[in-house]
Amino acid sequence: MADADIGLIGLGTMGAMLALNIADNGFSVAVHNRTASKIPEFIDGAGPLKDQFSGHAELADFVQAIAKPRSIILMVPAGDPVDEQIEALRPLLDEDDLIIDAGNANFHDTERRAKVAADAGNPYLGIGVSGGAEGARFGPSIMGGGDKDAWDRVEPILHAIAAKYEGAPCATHMGPGGAGHFVKTVHNGIEYADMQLIAEAYGLMRDGMGMDAAACGKTFAEWDKGPLKSYLIEISGKVAQATDAETGKPVLDIILDRAGQKGTGRWTVIESQMLGAPVPVIEAAVAARNLSAQRDLRIAGAAAYSEPNRTLADGVLSLDDIEQALIAGKILCYAQGYDLLSKASAEYDWHLPMAPIARVWREGCIIRSAMLSDMAEVLEKEPDQNLALSAHFKKLIADNIAGLRKTAVTAQMAGIAVPALSAALAYFDQMTTARVTANMLQAQRDYFGAHSFERVDKDGAHHGPWLNQHL
Ligand code: 6PG
After folding, report:
1. Which of 163-172, 375-384, 454-463 has the weakest average pLDDT?
2. Best probe residue, ligand 1, of 13, 106, 188, 360 (max atoms within 8 Å of C-beta)
3. By Cβ atoms counted within 10 A, which residue in 25, 71, 80, 161 is the most buried?
4. Could you confirm whether 406 is annotated as catalytic?
5. 81 shares its domain with 154
6. How far lies 199's CA from each of 156, 337, 407, 418, 470, in Å?
7. Do β-strands 124-130 and 141-146 pair in parallel, antiparallel, or remain unpaired?
C-alpha cells in the first residue's frame, strides 16, 4: 500500500528516535535500514506505535510504500553514505519526490546535492536536527535549508515533532540550499564554545579553589537559576554530581581528559576563516579539544616544566567572578557566532532570519538557554548589528566584563589554562579599541613585500620611505 505519510532511512539511534517521534505525532512511517535485521527489531520495539510503521528490507518496496509526492528522510552518517543512499534512491523516485538529509552534513555537500537533485527534477532539503537522542525522540530544534516549497510540504510534520517554546515549534526554514546545515554547523561551533567555557570554570573551581566534583556540580546547579540558565549548565551540574558505581568516586574523576569530536565545530572555524568572520572563542574551544587529545605531549610537558601549584589564595577569586566571566564570555561568543551567520548570509545571498534562528534555539537544541530569548528580541530589532553593541547586551557585558578580566588574569597568573575565556576577553579588548596596532602589520608588509598601505590623513595606496633603501 502506498500510503505512508513519510519515509525514513537509517534506524541508528537518532533515526530510530526521530521515526518514533513522527509516529507519536500521528503520522504513518515507512522505514528502511541497510542492515535489514534492524527493521523488525525496531518495529517490534515500537510498542503501541508499531502499527504506524511499515518496514521494508528492499529499497524499491520502501519507496513504493510512501504516498506521492514522496518525502524521504535520510538519517545516515554524514559524508559518502549520504551520496551512496541518494544514488540508490534516484532511479526509484518520481519527479517531485523529496529527499531530506537530516544528518550533520557539511553545508557544501548539501549545496552540491541540492543542485544535482534539482537537475533530476527532485526537490531537496538539508535540515539540521539538534538535541541528541532525547531531542530526536521528544522534540528537536530543526534548522531547515533548501526549496521553500519542499519545506512547506513537510512543515506540518516537522512542526509537529519539533520542540515547542511557549507553544511555538522550534523548526524554521532558514534559506535555500545548504543554509540549514550551515546554521546547524554554527550551532555546533557555539556548542563547543559553551562546553569549553563551562569546562574552564570547572577547572578554576577544581584546580584553583580545590573544590571536589560534587561542589562544582552544586555551583553549576546554582548558576542554572540565574542568567546562565541553560541545558549545558544544567547537565554539567548533573554530570559533576554523578558517582561511579564501580569505584564510588565522582564519575568526572575517572573520565580520561581526552575529548572526542565528530568535526562540526572544526567546520565552523574553517568557514569563519574563509569568510573573514573571526570566532576566536569557538576557535579556542576546537583547539582545546585538539590539545586535550595530545595527552602524551601534555604529560611530557607537565614533567618537563614541573607543573606549578595552581591553588589560588583565599579570596583571590570568587565564584561570582567566575559566573560573571561565563556570562560575558557566552555573550561575546554568541556575538561572534551571529557575526559569522551574518557574513555567510551576505556571501551566499541566503537572507538568514537572525531572530528566528535564536527562536528555534530556545528549546530542543543542545545550546538552548534563557539568554536566547533576549537575543531573539534584540535580533528582531537590530538583525545586522553585532550583538555586543545592542543596548541590552552592552549593559550585560559592562556589568560582567570586570569578572571576565579578573578571572582570565587570575587564571593566567596561576597557570590555569582558560583559552576560551581569554579569547573572549581579547575579542572584547580588540573590538573596543578604536586604533589597534595593524598599522605595524601594514608597515611590515610594505617593507618586505611592497604591499602598500592606506594613510590616516589622505586617500590612496602608499609606500613607506624604506622601499628604495634596501632594494
Ligand atoms: C546536537 C549535537 C550533535 C553533535 C553530537 C556530537 O545538536 O544534537 O550538536 O549534532 O554532533 O553531539 O558532537 P561532537 O562529537 O562534534 O562533539
Report:
1. 375-384
2. 188
3. 161
4. no
5. yes
6. 39, 19, 14, 9, 51
7. antiparallel
> Any residues with CB less than 8 A from the CB of 334 and at least 6 apart, and which?
190, 371, 375, 387
Considering 111, 184, 323, 363, which one is annotated as catalytic?
184
CATH, residue 195: 1.10.1040.10
Collapsing DSSP to helix, strand or coil, 417 comes out as coil
Residue 130 β-bridge partners: 141
| Nearest partner of 83 among 109, 56, 111, 51, judged by Cα | 109
pLDDT per residue over 139-168, tens digit each?
Answer: 999 999 999 999 999 999 999 999 999 999
Please tell me the distance between residue 191's alpha carbon and the centre of ligand 1 in angstroms.
8
- For residue 191, the ligand 1 atom closest to its alpha carbon is 9
Q: Nearest C-alpha to atom 12 of ligand 1 is from which residue?
A: 132
| DSSP per-residue codes, 181-240 | HHHHHHHHHHHHHHHHHHHHHHHIIIIIT---HHHHHHHHHHHTTTTT-BHHHHHHHHHH
Same-domain check for residues 154 and 126: yes
Q: How far is the CA of 344 from the centre of ligand 1 (A)?
A: 21
Give the relative orientation of helices 107-119 and 80-89 as an angle to the nearest 10 degrees: 10
Residues 154 and 213 in one domain: no
Mean per-residue pLDDT of the chain: 97
Q: Is residue 247 part of a domain?
A: yes
Give the active site residue among 38, 111, 155, 191.
191
Query: Residue 1 domain-assigned?
Result: no
- Global pTM reads 0.96
Peptide bond into 69 cis (omega under 30): yes
Residue 418 lies in a domain: yes
How far is 242 from 177, CA to CA, in rounded Å?
43
**Looking at the structure, do residues 107 and 142 belong to the same domain, yes or no?**
yes
Range of the domain at 462: 438-470
Please tell me whether residues 427 and 443 are part of one structural domain: no
Residues 173 and 222 in one domain: no
Tell me the three state secondary structure of residue 86. helix
Q: Return d(Cα 444, Cα 451) in angstroms, integer.
A: 9
Is position 381 annotated as part of the catalytic site? no
User: pLDDT tens digit string along 403-429?
Assistant: 999 999 999 999 999 999 999 999 999
Amino acid in the structure at residue 255: I
